[in-house]
Amino acid sequence: MGNRVNNSFQDSQPKLCDKTPIELFRLFYDNEMSSMIRTETVRYARQKNNNHFDPTEIDITTFMGILLFSGYPSLPRQDMYWCRDEDLQTTFVSSLMTKNKFIAINKFLHLADNDNIGTTDKMFRVRQFLSSLNERLCQFNVFSKYLSIDEEMVPL
Q: Which of 42, 87, 102, 129 has the fewest CB atoms within 10 Å, i.e. the most exposed one?
């Protein structure tokens, strides 16, 4: 049964089968997504009167990668990824970004402009990001009509 599913996927999505995990990820999280997140994050920092905070798009992408990675070797607290104790040391994370930079990005991370909050749209703060992500997910016709996000069905 597993081969039938794999062959069906290979037949319907030959462009995706030869991609590495990072290449697949970059199809959905590209420079445009990173730029949008950076723009809104910096804007929020300015709204909070922090004029010195200025992460690069690479910083934002690295931050997102650390968030994804942190779901694999799960530690009780985020700051433990920078711990130097032999039994906890995660040099992969600490070599990519300092703890202070990670905390700063986490503090100001935003996906929408607070000055343009829609009073009727309860998902305003994530709407632009989700719409952009949905466009990217639909481009290969791999996903069904509905995606489950945090146990709620969201029509595409």
A: 87
Instruction: Give the Cα separation of 30 and 47 in Å (integer).
Output: 26
The Cα 56–Cα 81 span in angstroms is 21
Residue 64: inside a domain, yes or no? yes
DSSP string for 26-41: HHHS-HHHHHHHHHHH
Q: What angle do CA 61, 15, 18 make, to 5 degrees?
A: 75
For every one of its 156 residues, what pLDDT tens digit does the chain have, with 9 covering 90 and above? Answer: 444 445 566 776 777 778 888 888 888 888 999 999 999 999 999 999 999 999 999 999 999 988 888 877 777 778 788 888 777 777 788 889 999 999 999 999 999 888 877 678 788 888 888 888 888 888 776 655 555 555 554 554
Q: Is residue 156 part of a domain?
A: no
**Structural domains counted in the chain:** 1
Helices and strands counted in the chain (H then E) = 8, 2
Judge whether 92 lies within some domain: yes
Identify the DSSP state of 127.
H
Per-residue three-class SS string for 69-107: HCCCCCCCCHHHHHCCCCCCCCHHHHHHCCHHHHHHHHH
Domain enclosing residue 94, as ranges: 2-111
